[in-house]
């Protein structure tokens, strides 16, 4: 039974019913390697898609960057079987020469800003301005960020731009692999943490404070592309199209992502 609070899922399922999927004799199982930035949205997108298409999704989550075994670059390097992948656009740019993807199927899906959170019930520091954010980070005993795209920016650029890199030495926690920064916050391993808004908003035990101030914000674009070696190419292409549909846009927005409205720039970059 679907609860009233999941009304958007009912609506999106109805909208998905308007889409056309290939009628297969046997339902397909799509193996998807995906960034955790879409995890919250996929909690609703997956059942809506599966109900409408009859296919199923086997999603393996991981950060778009990093050297951990769960990271998308490492999975591609080790030729993990997949039908399609969803990752930060800059990661796909780096992986394009590998030949692992059919770049003609590349499609921009959503933009994701970086947000700030604290453990549930803790004091809510002001992070609405650059000065306030700087003070909040300096005042924390431990600052968490991810190994993925947002974490690379935070570690290599944000701290330097704020002028607090030296002050934070020994006070940071880089959350490894597919684990979310919010999970570390919920366990009390850090006082404040930064990650994609869409990841912080769906993690239990976290109070989401808001996005980074626009002056120091980094928005990551996430895109989907079909694997070059897959027996499910038709179904995988249809799923990528589904991610760009009005039904998917609604749920992407609710999870904290910003759907790409104009996806006319599809295929390999020129």
UniProtKB/TrEMBL annotation:
> From which residue to which does the signal peptide run?
1-27
Extract the InterPro entries matched here. ModA/WtpA
- Short name of one Pfam family for this protein? SBP_bac_11
Output the superkingdom of the source species. Bacteria
Q: Where are the transmembrane segments?
A: none
What the entry lists under Gene3D superfamilies is as follows: Periplasmic binding protein-like II
Keywords assigned by UniProt? Signal
- Protein name, per record: ABC transporter substrate-binding protein
